[in-house]
Amino acid sequence: MQHLKSFDRNRSPTGLLVASTDVQRRRRINSDYEISFMVPMTSADYKEKIIPKGYVQDERGQFYVVQSRGRDRNSKVISAQVICTHIMFKMIDFKIPYNQYIDEAYGVHITTLLDRITAATGGVYTFVLHDVFALRDVKDWGRTTALAGLNDVINLYGCEIEPDNTVIHLYKRIGKDDGFQYRLGKNIISDSFKDDASNLTTRLFSQMKDGRTFIGLSADYLTAEERSLLESVPGAIVDNKLAVNYLISPYAQYWTNNVNVFYDGELIDQNIEDPKELLIATREALRKKEMPEFEIGVSAADIHKIDPDEQQPGLGDTVYAYDPDMELQRVSCRVLELTEYPFAMDKHSQATLSNHMMRDDTQVLADLERSKQILNDLLSGGRVRASAFEEFAKQAVIDINASKTEIKYDGRGIVLQSTVNALDQVIMTSNGIIVTRDGGATAMTAITANGVSAPAVVGILGNFVQMKIGEGENVTQINLNGIAAGRSDFHSAPFRVYMNGDVVARSITLTGLIEASKMEYSDIVAGTITGAKIRTSVTGARFEVDETGWRTFDSSGSRRIGIYASSGHNMSAITFDQSNGELSGLINGGDGLFEVRSSGNSDLFLSALTNTIFFQGQLNFAAAYSASGFKLEYVSGLRAELDSIWSALAGKASIGHSHSVTIPNHNHGNPANANSGGGTFSVS
């Protein structure tokens, strides 16, 4: 898409704005979303397609409402500048009904207010929450338009919005952090850098509704760092309860001097009633004020227009600025505002960046509204009110005290002198730069031709192309490839750490715990490996060992062999499973019995093929169901013994044999007896 699309008031397309030029889109977090462009008044684009309250659509698919047209004659060319605001701002045309007004309510969920805004717009505008927001007390909400009601919700719940036409997405913080850099020499065309320490706070007092504080709250709600800092103050914590209503910044020691031990500030939030919530709010507010605020303006080349693979920064993204000449050493900041030229290849985007402590746009608007209210109160009824005048004078003193650093010139060179403490100076001489806290008597930090001298280096130590320690091949180096040691050539060094986190090392001595790690293609020589899961593959045919036992799997992933602590055999048995997962059999070396058995649905086969199976000991067949296929030849000598027995039995009469015997009369062995007893007798 190379041109804006035009639509009528009903969002029906009317064509492309081919004559439009200087298309500029400006977006700021929770603030402006607008597109402006120039178009010749003699063109069909102007006469037929651009109508007040009509729409244009950019390459992102977002609709913008035509709000104003400014005509201009430059020589013979008559052109018009058209300014369009995002369709989200049409919510200003919807008034929240009186019956949806909330005078006062406690513990209100954010969706309660958003649903009322949706209803007020007839369901045109809807909202999507991407984070969880705490309940808030609401007072005097809804006596306004839907857009103003949404702004009140943003301020009350601390949201950041990202509109997608009529669908509004709400986050605690929009944007992403994918490491995008604004770098001199790559995409920075020009930049400016401004910091401001006027709101610096290292000790923050706080109050909530009715002037109450968190004094008396248990110190257990403090973080370890907060507790340590408060315990350094005598009497701040008594009997494990907070005795003060302030928190101390961990950077307090860095900023302390012989005039200010702390830089004090105060937080007053009438919407908070819970001491624990006040503590959390104080913690968050202190984090925003404990370092100087800064703002960076960058004009950057849109490399993504010619290289689609190049990163493109988005509104709210966390980015990193690198311009060492401007004291930007890969400074982390957020994109607060973007001015883009989506259809021009010869124009580059401008971005406004700041650190995360920088007050966002809603806070700035709140301060402006507060100042305006002071002026209204001051001139109420044409009379000067004493209380309002005192508030006005206090505000004036704050503005006066927020003056810039004083610049002086003397025999030493250029002197940047603090207006708070004249002894705090930065002196630029022909020999170098000196940072001093005693008016130049001694240098706390010095930068000369010989190097940098400082008691400590705080923060990120630059973004260098290359650093090297040592000589020859005995060097340690840091460059755009990563970190290497042991050789001048990075890629052949025995120890290397690449930018993506990969580590190559010839030898490592580890003492401690390695967890949640993955090791590939390595030989491990170790004494004991405890608690690990060892397997030859993630899926398919493999074996595995872990704290539950040892097991193998076939190619379909079915378990086939295992030794288990929970198998009922106390790790003494090897179990064998079928492919369907059922038990096939086991070998168990239990106490008093060594068994080899199959399951109820499997046969057991013992084989030595043509070799011999030996049995030693007593064989007990008492539990055998039956024996089949057993032949006499399988027992050595048994056949010959049986044949000998049968041969002997063959010479004997059969069991059914009978015959008769005839004997004569006889005297039974006594000659005195008469002969008798003879005859024929039957015998068997």
Total strands: the figure is 43
Strand content: 25-35%
Structural class: alpha+beta
Largest sheet: 13 strands, mixed
Count of runs of 4 or more consecutive helical residues: 9
Count of the domains: 7
Give the integer mean of the pLDDT values. Answer: 82
Supply Rg: 47 Å
Query: Could you say which overall geometry the principal axes of the C-alpha atoms support?
Result: elongated
Unreliable stretches: 357-372, 378-384
Alpha-carbon distance between the termini? Answer: 127 Å
Fraction of residues in H or I helices: 10-25%
Describe this structure in words.
This protein has seven domains: 5-90, no CATH class; 94-174, Phage tail protein beta-alpha-beta fold (3-Layer(bab) Sandwich), CATH 3.55.50; 176-197 and 292-377, no CATH class; 203-289, no CATH class; 404-453, no CATH class; 466-505, no CATH class; 548-615, no CATH class. The strands form nine sheets. Strands 1, 2, 3, 4, 5, 6, 7, 13, 14, 20, 21, 22 and 23 form a 13-stranded mixed β-sheet that branches. It has a seven-stranded antiparallel β-sheet with strand order 35-36-37-38-39-40-41, with no helix packed on it. Helices cover 15% and strands 34% of the residues. With 684 residues, the protein is of the alpha+beta class. InterPro entries: Phage_tail_spike_N, Phosphohistidine_dom_sf, Tail_dom. This is Phage tail protein. Residues 664-675 have a biased composition (Low complexity). Residues 664-684 are annotated as: Disordered. GO terms for molecular function: transferase activity, transferring phosphorus-containing groups.
